[in-house]
Amino acid sequence: MLGLLIAIIYLACSWPSYRRDMESVHWPRTQGIITESQLKPGYVRILGTPTIAGHYADVRYRYTVGATVFAGERISFDPSLRSEESARREFDLYPVGKIVSAYYDPAKPAVSVLVPGLQKEQHDLLFLGIGLMAIFTLVFCFLIYVVYRINRELRNPPGSN
């Protein structure tokens, strides 16, 4: 029961982000230019000590919507850290001065991304959440069935008719 509740809460909390990520492939596109690009280590705190957990490409770009110039820094909606080699491959795609396509939210043009849509890891997490919810639901239904059968047998023991 607790697992089902956790899966439902996970999906409910993450659904708005997944929906935005999926809708971003339909956002308008405009031309942008890379203004900064660095390969950086990403840290996590383990027992209070910062420890390198991976790397990421820190990219900044400018794009224009109408007469307004915006600054963006999101390559994709997948915030995960990567191996240094993988992050370097992504970093190499965005050198300073490169002209790029920036996809922006028409309702909030300050929200933009260079690679729209769900990335592979996000697909995997979404399907994991749905799969866990399905498994917990089946287990919950099976337990209800078992309790029902036990109660029925206790009320009507064999040979009591």
Give a quick set of tags describing it.
single chain; 161 residues; alpha+beta; 5-stranded antiparallel beta sheet
Q: Note the total helix count.
A: 3
The residue-averaged pLDDT reads 84
Secondary structure: number of strands: 5
> Class by helix and strand content?
alpha+beta
Low-confidence stretches: none
**Could you give the order of strands across the largest sheet?**
3-2-1-4-5
- Terminal residue distance: 36 Å
Helix content: 40-55%
The largest sheet, given as strand count, sense and whether it forms a barrel, is: 5 strands, antiparallel
Proportion of residues in β-strands: 25-35%
**Whole-angstrom Rg:** 24 Å
Order of H and E elements: HEEEHEEH
User: What spatial form do the alpha-carbon principal axes imply?
Assistant: elongated
Q: What does this protein look like?
A:
With 161 residues, the protein is α+β, with helices and mostly antiparallel strands. The protein has a domain at 28-115. It is built from 3 helices and 5 strands. The chain has helices at 2-23, 84-92, 120-155, and strands spanning 29-46, 49-65, 68-72, 99-104, 112-113. Strands 3-2-1-4-5 form a 5-stranded antiparallel sheet. A hairpin with a 7-residue loop joins β4 and β5 (112-113). α1 runs antiparallel to α3 (120-155). The radius of gyration is 24 Å and the shape is elongated. The mean pLDDT is 84.
